[in-house]
Amino acid sequence: MQDFTFKVYARRWNGDVTYRLHKTATGWHVHHIAIKGDSAPDGKPFLQSALHQDSISYPKQISQFLEFVWEKLHRADYEPEEAQGKLQEVADWISACEKSQPIWSALAR
Q: Distances from the Cα of 47 to the Cαs of 1, 23, 67, in angstroms?
């Protein structure tokens, strides 16, 4: 299995959004509704673009974690199930950031 899910909470949609990641020889193929394409091992540019399109707040360090998981998979240090768990940990971190973002009506204009 080289296909993974990346489920995050999106305040904009008042619920979870699932991105699909497929490990390729050179990075991740990211797939989500309108934004999809081949990204580097750190998920750039497509995963971050998809998160931005969905107005999801996320920590800038996610790139380092995505690249770490990709490298572990690439060297066969992680089984796919372990990688899926690690990817979901990153997604959960994003969800925590999204849920804790302040809501100020002046910024919504």
A: 20, 13, 12
